[in-house]
Structures are given as structure tokens and as C-alpha cells.
Specification:
322 residues; 6-stranded parallel β-sheet; 2 domains; Quinone Oxidoreductase, Chain A, domain 1; alpha/beta; Rossmann fold
Length: 322
């Protein structure tokens, strides 16, 4: 099969569009004929092997898994003997190993059915970013209806979902983005939009939760912008070769150790139940995936380069069957 693979850590220049062996399902797994995938910061971390901590699981000197990509949408091609609830021909989306390929292996427990009226591209945009936004607000922000939430990086993959989900939860949403994205973020449901190029994010307003997708403000500024019982939810931060953004997450835990304010960081768990809850928002018309650009499989390296510029907004999708 054709796939995007690399044998060394590095930039997108290391990615090759080449033939690799077809995968086969192990216990509890299925093989998905991939129709679409999407790019996440996770793919960049795994491609570059940074922060260095990721190499403890991904491979110290070179990647154990040469094919990149996690978000997947497609059709079940084969199932292991012990898999129930999924059959060949089912339209599914979720997480897979090596989604930037014509075929990918996925745990049956990491997939859910795609609604008939949803495209493969829309479904591929959902798993990592959508579930991360959902869990950041529901499980870690824990803001009651009517509460205030600040979403920094509101025009990104997680941010665009977070704005919509927060609005659907009945929260008062303030989104932070650049000038060109102000109208989009407002249309997604933000009650107020801060253009960080002309306005100060830290303006004396206090929020019940801050969802930080960027890491551009000091922890002191974040604490001053929270209510006494408020929560800082760190989704991402400035990238670094060794431990960033992990150092910010650890530092936040220590900085918020005393007092009633909380600092939260987490790794999203994309289970079928979480994916179905996310679909509930979509079926009610409260949330929709926003897709910035779409690339054919052969141009996946270019899609990742675009994401790493920091100028991509919402989701970038790879059309594998294009």
C-alpha cells in the first residue's frame, strides 16, 4: 500500500510517500481502508521526536512506527476474530496507528460509527481535537452553566471545537485569536473575541476556566485572570526540543499547588463513548468541524509543514482517496 513514512526523526523533509507492507489486525483490532485523516500537533511531535520524552515510547534513535497519522475515517477492511460490534464495510472514525496511508490498524475500542450524513473528511477532523476540547471543558474546566471561559488559541483545531462546545454548554465564551480569525471565532459562538495583535488578553476580566492552547502568557497572568475557584486547563504550549511544553504543565501544577485555583493538564482518551458524545453535539447542530485546507495523501508532508507554520486555522485534512 501507499503511505507517508519516515525512518529518522526530523522535519517534514524526512517524510516519504512510498510503498509499505499492508497491515493485518492483531487481537482486538481492525484494518481500516482510510478515506481521510487529519493533522494534529501530535503528528509533529512524533515526526520530530520532540520533546525528547516522546522517544521513550516512540523509539530512542528512530521511530518504531514509521507511518504517521492518528485521526482516521474510513471503511472497515478486515477484523480480528475476537472483535465484535464491527464488521467489514462499516463506516468508522476514531484513532488508528498510521492513518496517513491507504490502510491503517486501529483498536476496535477506538472507533465509532460515522453518521450517514457526515463526510469522511468531517469525521476525520473530529477525534483528537474534538475530544480534547470536550474533556478540557467538561472534565477539567468544570464550569457551571453561565460561567465564564477564556479560550486561548480559539482559531486552532482544539480551539474551534472548544468555542462551540462551550457555547453549547451555556457558558459565556471569550475567544483569543489573530485579526484574520476574529469573525470566524465570533460565528462559532464566542460572545467576545480578543484580537491578541491589538488587545491585551490580561485586562482584569476573571474567568471560571481558561483553556490554553498556546502557552504564550505567564502562569502569573493566568492566575490573575482566574476567579478564586477557577481552573487553568493546559492543552498545549510553546514547543521545545527537550521537555517543552511538559515543563509548563509541571510548573503550573507547582504554581497552583496552594490555594483554591486549579491547574490541569491531561491526555485525551478517544473512546467510542467520547466520540458518540461529540457526535451528539453535531447531530443537534451545536458543533461542526471547521476545515481549513485539504491535501491529497502524496502531499501530506506539505500539510504538516502548513500546520507547523502556526498560521493554520481549525483542521487540516488529508484526503487519502483523492
Amino acid at each position: 500500500m501507499k503511505a507517508i513514512a519516515h525512518d529518522r526523526y526530523g522535519s517534514a523533509d524526512e517524510l516519504e510517500f512510498r510503498e509499505v507492507s499492508d497491515p493485518s489486525p492483531g487481537p482486538g483490532q481492525v484494518v481500516v481502508r482510510v478515506h481521510a485523516a487529519s493533522v494534529n500537533p501530535l503528528d509533529v511531535h512524533m515526526m520530530t521526536g520532540t520533546p525528547m520524552l516522546v522517544r521513550l515510547s516512540a523509539g530512542l534513535r528512530r521511530p518504531k512506527q514509521p507511518v504517521r497519522g492518528a485521526d482516521v475515517a474510513g471503511v472497515v477492511e478486515a477484523v480480528a476474530d475476537d472483535v465484535t460490534g464491527l464488521a467489514v464495510g462499516d463506516r468508522v472514525f476514531g484513532l488508528a496507528r498510521g492513518a496517513f496511508a491507504e490502510l491503517a490498524v486501529a483498536s476496535a475500542g477506538a472507533l465509532a460509527a460515522i453518521p450517514d450524513d457526515m463526510s469522511f473528511a468531517e469525521a476525520a477532523a473530529l477525534p483528537v481535537a474534538g475530544v480534547t476540547a470536550l474533556q478540557a471543558l467538561r472534565d477539567h474546566g468544570r464550569v457551571r452553566t453561565g460561567g465564564r471561559v477564556l479560550i486561548i488559541g480559539a482559531a486552532g483545531g482544539v480551539g474551534t471545537f472548544a468555542v462551540q462546545i462551550a457555547a453549547a454548554m451555556g457558558l459565556e465564551v471569550t475567544g483569543v485569536c489573530s485579526t484574520r480569525n476574529v469573525e470566524m471565532v465570533r460565528e462559532l459562538g464566542a460572545h467576545r473575541v480578543i484580537d491578541y495583535t491589538t488587545e491585551d488578553v490580561v485586562d482584569g476580566t476573571r474567568y471560571d476556566a481558561i483553556v490554553d492552547n498556546v502557552g504564550s502568557h505567564s502562569l502569573g497572568d493566568m492566575r490573575r485572570s482566574l476567579t478564586d475557584e477557577g481552573a487553568l486547563v493546559i492543552v498545549s504550549g510553546k514547543k521545545g526540543r527537550f521537555i517543552r511544553p511538559v515543563d509548563r504543565m509541571v510548573g503550573a501544577k507547582l504554581r497552583f499547588l496552594f490555594g483554591s485555583q486549579r491547574a490541569e493538564s491531561f491526555t485525551a482518551s478517544e473512546t467510542p463513548d467520547e466520540l458518540r458524545e461529540l457526535l451528539g453535539y453535531i447531530e443537534r447542530g451545536e458543533v461542526h468541524p471547521v476545515i481549513d485546507r485539504r491535501y491529497p495523501l502524496a502531499d501530506t508532508a506539505e500539510a504538516i509543514r502548513y500546520v507547523t507554520t502556526g498560521h493554520a486555522r481549525a483542521k487540516v485534512v488529508v484526503d487519502v482517496t483523492a
